[in-house]
Backbone:
């Protein structure tokens, strides 16, 4: 297993480099332009100058190599320098990856947005796992019972209604219809500058998180509970379950130790694969509630054709995906001793 | 006598007959089948029965309410149904009076430009269902093939899974912009604006949504491969192709079915997101997702505009899901035997 | 680090001064916090490095120009003592220089004096070739900017300049502090994150915390020239989301005090306003939603000559009768009502404002006349074919009509398509992502400059009140083509020697009445020839809470122009 892990890790480096190049190629080929969202009063000649000042006149491979240098050499050096408060080489003049729209280092932007994304999107995943797993297990164990039918119904509704609709619906109910002074009133706009210092500010944080977390959790829980149920059903009809029961094991033990453990294998993949999505943020939900996390940063970058921002963000995302795929594979091996990687 | 009877019975039983008889015992699946058939019939035959042009702008009848709102007129219910145009609603405010109105010309209401909602729903259903089904099939085939090959052939596991990583990591929106820029005009010239865009969208949704299926299928195949019956098949020299089609595929049907049922919903919703970004069908081309998105702005003014398309999507997804459940049970020999 | 410390100190100074003046009725910061919501988030607070309205508006709370435009488009002195004119001797007789006198006693928010050196520095900053300044048009034809003394600045032009108020006037051209930005000139400009995010200004507020593309929090400037202003001690400038939810946050939930640019369905906006929390305000500037008519042939068969003069005239749009019929078949009043409500009126002019420039010669198109349109086409020999679409000599009236992706534009497209069907014209609609459509990517076929379509629709406008540069857009030299990398603003590819002559005359005329006459003539020429089909004169719609007093919506300058005067009422 260790061998396998090391081999996979070695293999990730060329993979990631290749991914970064493909991403850059796509961003470069895409027809949107950083001057596209400027007001009409800025004449075409000025737009062309702006483009040149952003370095867009250089050939594609030059810009890619520049990004590589900035991201793989300058940024880590800068990070080390900041941690130990030392200056490595010409630290003042070192070019960092800068967003075109904000002219600030992309890594700083990502760090600034991490908290709200982790709070909201992360919490929504925790909530959806907590909801989905028991629902999936019970639905499968009591297949076609009323619990199963309702569970299927609710999760399919949750899955088939897009978040742009549920979000607006919740705002209309809890922010518009419920009077402002009621304890059920919830803020429709997330305050990213809010700091939790005491109970009342924690209470406020909870309230402003309720709606976005619920919208996302409903959507994710629906998917997860379906996978859980299907996987449980598969295992419940296996011979080893009959054997376990025949041995006289308690039903609880059969279900929670034997069946659950084996059913978790595909579900773990789904969960592990969705962890990077926590960091990727949730584009539509963040937009509706103005959580302004990483998802919103990405969509603004894409709309404004902010190549360094989008490139860096998607690459960080790619690193997480590759790593968590590895984690999922290792978990596979741990959960299912029959799988051998070597 | 009895043995002859048994022989006859055994002859008449086929695999698909068994599957069908098992499927029929699944109540949810039968209900889903009926609902889905109704929806399918509605969107295919509907536009021939309800002949209003979904694109026609009846601007004087903009923002009409569905006829159901007649039930809220109190004493005037009968009059409202027989002669809807004569109804003056309870709110004396002139502005509201203008907007709260009903007519049989638009039985479930109209949008802000006076397009008939029923006609749009029927027309939009055709596109949404077609996109949902084809894109789901495409991503299912891609995902299953990639997953099975990666799980079964150790040598191909690495490359295919790294390819999966690549696709998972690709930024979807810029990718769409690129694909559309590169292929829109070619496809439009070859197939006309609507079919061209249809192919493009199905392709885009299919190619960007197969990865999860692939990962899950691969996981299951990895586990299956070490099971005794596969080892046995291997040891008697069964060729790989036969092992995959006879032993592996039937055993991974349940995750595939779940992916398929979820895939229809994802495809329909992704299509609406694409339309919203201007990358989908032309703006005068209704789809359910698009109707729902457009209606969201008017959620407080005319809730009917979100209820109908929302209901249509949910019912479709729900019925497809129940059909999937039934199929899964029917295809599983262990359950079928019981 | 240093700056945060500094902000913290000044903040405490501000608090002290507030408490000292607590007895007085008009103390600064007496009204607490004000919440502003923009559905586009602020990405940078240096207006010279961003062209976005959201960035310019936010930075105008901090930075100020020498003069501004008021809500009627009149110039008012801001940091200057008066508006220089030829009459008061501020502008030289030959129109080659302008001298500004600065109000004495103005301080930057860090307490240092505001001097002419800062003004000179700002010009150097923006005119530097390597700086990527986005407001260089404000400084066009400027030869030099010189400080005569601490409070006097002279701007010299390379040639006589009839309109000499470009530099340092209006929200797009405010003054930066020389001391803060001295190391940020030229190629270093984009790397000065600290400065670009926390500019020191003379305005009513200063930055407390800046989160790019999210939120800016500001506090009152303790060194503001009027000790009783601003009334608010702090300000939150939140961004992101969409227009509908921004409107909801002000008008329905009451979480915010001011929402910008509410481009939402008029009926929805009216319903939101009925909740009684806030007021919708609108104001008209120079923006006109118009269709550009392609005078050249966009056929893909032409290859490189597509949509260029060399490719030859358009197969049917080159016929004036077709252009006229297309125009009068449109019900502009309905378009304005359905799409814009209070924020739009029908117009037949490409220059609808200011009033002195607005022509009335083209008002035929204000009333929809399908019959006349049909008549015009019949007379011109376009006969209906079997499918109801008109043809002449094998040319079908089939139009590809493109615009950017935007709900209102798509509604307009749908309506227009229907009217054109009624006059026997077939229309295919196409909408393109705004970042692609308005972007200048050379490799994309979908930009508005390449115009590979028959008709395209968007809004254009001019800054301030002088339309000279705007009118120049439709001269022959401005036609986009592969030779000039499609850089040009003459989208219709309209080329008329008489028009070019008028443009030259305009650049040499100083008297405002004569200028108005020429502009009107140019406008009428464009309209009569049908190079453009104007649709709706667009205003700006914003909303403020009923408890926020003093909001005067201004479309000629930044919307935040008078934020210092805002107060909290009942």
Residues:
């Amino acid at each position: 297993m260790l061998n396998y892990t090391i081999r996979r890790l070695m293999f990730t480096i060329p993979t990631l480099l290749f991914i970064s190049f493909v991403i850059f190629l796509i961003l470069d080929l895409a027809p949107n332009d950083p001057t596209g969202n400027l007001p009409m009063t800025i004449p075409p000649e000025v737009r062309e100058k702006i483009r040149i000042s952003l370095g867009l006149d250089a050939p594609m491979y030059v810009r890619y190599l520049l990004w590589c240098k900035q991201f793989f050499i300058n940024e880590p050096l800068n990070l080390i320098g900041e941690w130990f408060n030392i200056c490595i080489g010409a630290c003042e003049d070192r070019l960092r990856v800068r967003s075109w729209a904000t002219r600030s280092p992309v890594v700083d932007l990502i760090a600034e947005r991490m908290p709200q994304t982790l709070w909201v999107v992360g919490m929504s995943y925790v909530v959806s796992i907590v909801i989905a797993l028991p629902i999936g297990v019970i639905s499968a164990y009591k297949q076609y019972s009323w619990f199963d039918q309702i569970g299927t119904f609710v999760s399919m509704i949750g899955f088939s209604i897009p978040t742009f609709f549920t979000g607006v619906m919740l705002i209309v109910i809890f922010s518009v219809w419920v009077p402002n002074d009621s304890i059920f009133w919830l803020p429709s706009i997330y305050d990213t500058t809010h700091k939790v210092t005491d109970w009342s500010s924690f209470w406020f944080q909870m309230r402003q998180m309720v709606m976005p977390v619920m919208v996302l959790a409903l959507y994710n829980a629906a998917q997860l509970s379906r996978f859980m149920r299907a996987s449980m059903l598969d295992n419940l009809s296996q011979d080893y379950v009959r054997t376990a029961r025949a041995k006289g094991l308690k039903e609880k033990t059969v279900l929670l130790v034997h069946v659950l453990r084996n059913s978790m294998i595909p579900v773990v993949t789904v969960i592990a694969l969705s962890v990077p999505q926590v960091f990727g943020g949730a584009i539509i939900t963040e937009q509706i509630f103005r959580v302004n996390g990483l998802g919103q940063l990405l969509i603004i970058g894409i709309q404004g054709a902010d190549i360094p921002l989008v490139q860096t963000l998607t690459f960080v995302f790619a690193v997480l995906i590759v790593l968590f795929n590895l984690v999922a594979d290792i978990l596979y091996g741990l959960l299912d001793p029959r799988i051998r990687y070597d | 006598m009895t043995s002859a009877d048994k022989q006859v019975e055994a002859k008449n039983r086929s695999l698909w007959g068994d599957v069908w008889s098992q499927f029929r015992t699944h109540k949810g699946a039968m209900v889903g089948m009926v609902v889905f058939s109704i929806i399918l019939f509605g969107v295919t035959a509907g536009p021939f029965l309800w002949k209003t042009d979904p694109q026609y702008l009846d601007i004087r009848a903009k923002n009409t309410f569905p006829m159901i709102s007649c039930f809220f007129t109190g004493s005037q219910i009968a009059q409202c149904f027989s002669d809807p145009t004569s109804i003056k609603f309870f709110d004396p405010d002139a502005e509201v009076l203008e907007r709260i109105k009903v007519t049989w010309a638009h039985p479930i209401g109209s949008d802000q430009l006076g397009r008939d909602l029923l006609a749009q729903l029927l027309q939009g259903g055709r596109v949404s269902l077609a996109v949902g089904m084809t894109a789901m099939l495409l991503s299912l085939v891609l995902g299953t093939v990639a997953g099975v090959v990666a799980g079964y052939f150790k040598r191909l596991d690495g490359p295919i899974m790294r390819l999966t990583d690549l696709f998972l990591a690709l930024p979807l929106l810029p990718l769409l912009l690129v694909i559309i820029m590169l292929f829109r005009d070619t496809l439009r010239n070859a197939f006309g604006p609507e079919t061209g865009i249809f192919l493009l969208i199905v392709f885009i949704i299919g190619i960007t949504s197969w990865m999860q299926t692939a990962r899950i299928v691969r996981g299951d195949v990895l586990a299956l491969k070490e099971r005794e019956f596969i080892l046995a098949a291997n040891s008697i020299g069964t060729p790989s192709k036969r092992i995959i089609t006879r032993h592996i595929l039937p055993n991974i049907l349940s995750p595939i079915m779940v992916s398929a049922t979820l895939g229809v919903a994802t495809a329909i919703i992704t299509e609406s997101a694409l339309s919203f970004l201007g990358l989908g069908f032309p703006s005068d081309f209704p789809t359910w997702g698009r109707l729902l998105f457009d209606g969201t702005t008017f959620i407080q003014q005319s809730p009917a505009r979100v209820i109908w398309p929302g209901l249509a999507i949910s019912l479709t997804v729900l019925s497809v899901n129940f059909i999937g459940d039934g199929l899964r049970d029917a295809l599983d020999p262990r359950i079928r035997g019981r | 680090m240093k700056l945060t410390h500094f902000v913290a100190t000044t903040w405490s100074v501000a608090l002290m001064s507030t408490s000292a003046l607590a007895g007085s009725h008009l103390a600064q910061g007496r009204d607490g916090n004000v919440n502003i919501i923009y559905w586009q988030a602020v990405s940078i607070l240096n207006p010279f490095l961003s062209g976005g309205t959201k960035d310019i508006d936010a930075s105008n709370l901090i930075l100020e120009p020498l003069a501004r435009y008021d809500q009627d488009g009149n110039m008012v002195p801001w940091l200057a003592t008066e508006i220089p004119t030829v009459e008061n001797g501020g502008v030289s007789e030959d129109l080659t220089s302008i001298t500004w006198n600065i109000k004495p006693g103005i301080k930057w928010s860090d307490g240092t004096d505001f001097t002419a050196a800062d003004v000179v520095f700002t010009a150097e900053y923006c005119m530097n070739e390597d700086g990527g300044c986005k407001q260089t048009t404000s400084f066009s034809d400027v030869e030099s900017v010189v400080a005569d003394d601490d409070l006097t600045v002279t701007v010299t032009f390379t040639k006589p300049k009839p309109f000499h108020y470009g530099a340092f006037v209006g929200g797009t051209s405010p003054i930066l502090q020389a001391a803060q930005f001295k190391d940020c000139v030229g190629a270093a400009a984009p790397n000065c994150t600290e400065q670009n995010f926390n500019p020191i200004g003379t305005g009513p507020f200063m930055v407390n915390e800046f989160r790019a593309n999210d939120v800016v929090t500001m506090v009152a400037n303790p060194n503001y020239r009027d000790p009783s202003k601003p009334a608010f001690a702090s300000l939150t400038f939140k961004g992101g989301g969409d227009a509908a939810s921004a409107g909801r946050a002000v008008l329905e939930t009451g979480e915010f005090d001011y929402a910008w640019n509410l481009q939402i369905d008029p009926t929805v906006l009216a319903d939101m306003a009925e909740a009684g929390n806030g007021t919708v305000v609108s104001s008209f500037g120079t923006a006109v939603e118009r269709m550009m008519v392609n005078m050249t042939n966009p056929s893909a068969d032409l290859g490189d000559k597509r949509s260029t003069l060399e490719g030859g005239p358009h197969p049917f749009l080159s016929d004036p009768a077709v252009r006229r019929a297309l125009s009068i078949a449109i019900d502009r009043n309905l378009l304005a009502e359905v799409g814009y409500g209070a924020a739009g009126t029908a117009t037949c002019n490409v220059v609808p404002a200011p009033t002195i420039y607005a022509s009335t010669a083209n008002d035929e198109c204000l009333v929809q006349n399908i019959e006349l349109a049909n008549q015009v086409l019949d007379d011109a020999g376009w006969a209906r074919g079997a499918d109801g679409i008109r043809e002449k000599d094998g040319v079908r009236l089939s139009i590809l009509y493109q615009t950017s992706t935007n709900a209102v534009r798509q509604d307009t497209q749908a309506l227009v398509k229907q009217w054109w069907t009624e006059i026997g014209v077939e229309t295919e609609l196409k909408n393109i992502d705004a970042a692609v459509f308005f972007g200048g990517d050379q490799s994309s076929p979908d930009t508005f400059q390449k115009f590979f379509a028959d008709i395209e629709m968007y809004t254009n406008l001019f800054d301030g009140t002088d339309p000279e540069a705007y009118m120049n857009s439709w001269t022959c030299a401005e036609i986009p083509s592969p030779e000039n990398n499609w850089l040009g603003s003459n989208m219709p590819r309209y080329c008329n020697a008489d028009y070019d002559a008028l443009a030259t005359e305009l650049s040499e005329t100083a008297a405002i009445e004569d200028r108005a006459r020429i502009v009107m003539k140019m406008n009428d020429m464009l309209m009569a020839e049908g190079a453009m089909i104007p649709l709706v004169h667009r205003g700006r719609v914003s909303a403020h809470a009923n408890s926020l007093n003093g909001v005067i919506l201004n479309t000629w300058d930044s919307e935040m122009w008078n934020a210092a005067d805002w107060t909290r009422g009942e």
